[in-house]
Amino acid sequence: MRRAGGRFRAPVAALAFAALAASGCSPAAGEPGNAATRHTVVMLAASSLTESLTTVAKDFRASHPGTDVQLSFAASSTVVTQVNQGAPADLIALAGTAAAVPLDKSRIVKNGTRPLASNTLEIATPPSNPGNVNAITDLSRPTLNVVLCAATVPCGKAAAKALSLAGVVAHVVSYETDVKATLAKVQLGEADAAIVYHSDVVSAGARVRGVQIPASVNQTVDYPLIQLTNDPTTVEFRTYLLSDQGRKRLRDNGFLTP
Prior knowledge:
Layout: E1 2-4, E2 7-9, H1 12-23, E3 40-46, H2 50-63, E4 68-74, H3 76-84, E5 91-93, E6 113-125, E7 146-149, H4 154-166, E8 172-176, H5 179-187, E9 193-197, H6 198-204, E10 209-212, E11 220-227, H7 232-241, H8 244-252
Parallel strand pairs: 3-4, 3-5, 7-8, 7-9
Antiparallel strand pairs: 1-2, 5-11, 6-9, 6-10, 6-11
């Protein structure tokens, strides 16, 4: 298991089943909650949202005593696969609207999709920048060890588009499962550079150095928030997440909000 933002990134389905079992009920997805109100919300989200959602959930617990929010983070494609395989979840948040295309639409409640945030790409290097990376064109140098997200996940698809528009063939030594694993290679000194999200560079602080990607080739990734149950506590948390307080936490971590 990989630890993300102070929380174990356990298998999504296992965490979701455990959380719902602890709450004592398992409402049908996409239908109104007619059973007794639960006080635990299960949310599965793209790994780039780790820091932001962890903080929002902490704020929500503090302002709503007796409630809990169970979070699990993974690549957006993994989140969708788990939901399609029946993993119990109340809310999901994905990196990129295209990631939601394979999602089983029968799991989504009526009017259950809202825009949460958006993100752009940025190059991350170790703080000392040993590879002397100052532009996206530098990533083609054969002396550099560049790491990207896997092509099957949103950050990898966005990076591939940016590199193509820039006419750059990066010297890639590794493709990672999600953006946090990609960033970790840089933080551990195992890569000279990685293309990640701007929010990841902001959240990492002094542990990495950011190199901007020109707007002419950069990619904007929109994050949909998708509601899968009408449990009252879920509705309350969704409202909080979309409120000024929730969106401020997202902006604090480098996201753009509607």
